[in-house]
Structures are given as C-alpha cells and as structure tokens.
C-alpha cells in the first residue's frame, strides 16, 4: 500500500455494537450478527458459481504485519466484511504468518 491512500473500508458502517468472537457451528468460522438489510454491493457482483454454504470462492487477504498502515487497513476491512456481509463465512484475523501463509492474513468464503 505504498504511494496510494484508500478510504477506510469501515466508512459509512455502524460500529455501535462490538462484533462477537464466538465460533459458528463448524467450529472454525465466526458468528456474524445479521446485517439488517442487504449490502448494495449485491447489485454489483456477478452470480456466484456455487450457492452452497461453503461459497464459490475462497479469498485470502494478506497484509504486512510490520506495517501499521496495512495492519489497520486489514483490520478495518475484516470488520467491514463481517458487518456488511454477515452471511459470509469468515475466519480469524491472523496477526502473523500461519501454516503455509507467508504473512499475516484472513480468509473468507464468498
């Protein structure tokens, strides 16, 4: 993220209540509270290949955990996804490399 500034991914999202840390029934993903109304982004994306519970795509968002700016942005993006797309499976936000992943990251299914 050098040279270009992006607006916070949490802009325009209510953060009145903290997000829960409880795990979902699968024992791995996190419970997200209902968003209330569907995100406008649903009108801008193509139909998923798979509408099953696991989702069509597996997305890993990597960031440099030694960069304060990248860590803040990734943390805010993680929260934004959980608040706006509560039906998506999302996993823990890792603040360090884990398993085969060479840097900090989080994963979500779409």
UniProtKB/TrEMBL annotation:
Coiled coil: none annotated. Signal peptide: none annotated. SUPFAM superfamilies: DOPA-like. Residues 1-39 are annotated as: Disordered. It comes from the Eukaryota. PANTHER family: AFR070WP. This is Uncharacterized protein. It comes from Akanthomyces muscarius (Entomopathogenic fungus). The lineage of its organism: Eukaryota, Fungi, Dikarya, Ascomycota, Pezizomycotina.
């Amino acid at each position: 993220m050098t040279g270009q500034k992006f607006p916070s991914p949490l802009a325009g999202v209510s953060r009145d209540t903290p997000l829960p840390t409880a795990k979902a029934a699968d024992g791995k993903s996190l419970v997200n509270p209902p968003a209330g109304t569907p995100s406008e982004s649903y009108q801008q994306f193509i139909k998923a290949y798979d509408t099953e519970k696991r989702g069509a795509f597996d997305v890993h968002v990597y960031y440099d955990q030694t960069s304060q700016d990248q860590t803040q942005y990734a943390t805010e993006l993680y929260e934004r996804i959980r608040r706006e797309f509560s039906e998506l499976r999302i996993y823990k936000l890792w603040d360090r490399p884990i398993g085969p992943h060479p840097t900090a990251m989080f994963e979500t299914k779409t």
